[in-house]
Amino acid sequence: MFRPVDLFDLSQTEHAALFDGCEHAWDALKKLKAYVEAHVKPALHNKCIGHAFIGENVFIGAGTVVEDGVMIKGPAIIGRNCEIRHNAYLREHVIIGDGCVIGNSCEFKHALLFNGCQVPHFSYVGDSILGHKAHLGAGVKISNVKLVPGHVTVELNGKPFDTGLRKFGALLGDHTDIGCNSVLNPGSIIGRGSVIYPCTNWRGILPAHSIAKNKAASEVVVRRVK
Questions:
Q1: The domain 4-212 belongs to what CATH superfamily?
Q2: pTM greater than the 0.90 cutoff
Q3: Using alpha carbons only, how large is the chain's radius of gyration in Å?
Q4: 18 by DSSP, 3-state: which?
């Protein structure tokens, strides 16, 4: 499930060429910086509500609304009919597809979002690829750097496989849904149509059409009234 076509419908991005020659989907992250810098054609076709900072090396498509307090440093390529909401922060080398929601106080860095992605509230997305109509609940964090030295690894045939990436957050297949306040640790790969329950600390590979449940039990006690 590591090939780009295993995770993503490549017709749902105008940047499918980024995956050309990629044996593993994460290999596209190695090419993302150069790709954005080569293909961005600065132009702003959006509507602004209030005041936003938009860098010189940014393209924004028609029908996209950028709200007050947004900072887009660039280089960045943002598609059509998106919502870039209040105080969103887009750092370097970000591609946003058509019809995406980039939410209040969300931060993006070195990331690709396919069409129809929704990241509406208080999330961090770094060094990651989110497939068609992937959705992050409020407060989801994608951790992109190991706490210890070395490249991020994934499990392949039962053994750690070196991705060659020091920074690698997650690959979220099409139609995945990540519950509120979950954390995806470096190198997480979530298969198409899978769901992760809220407040889950996830590491590793979740096959397509699966559900990861948080088993933490809640304790109920009698309330003592003073």
A1: Hexapeptide repeat proteins (2.160.10.10)
A2: yes
A3: 18
A4: helix
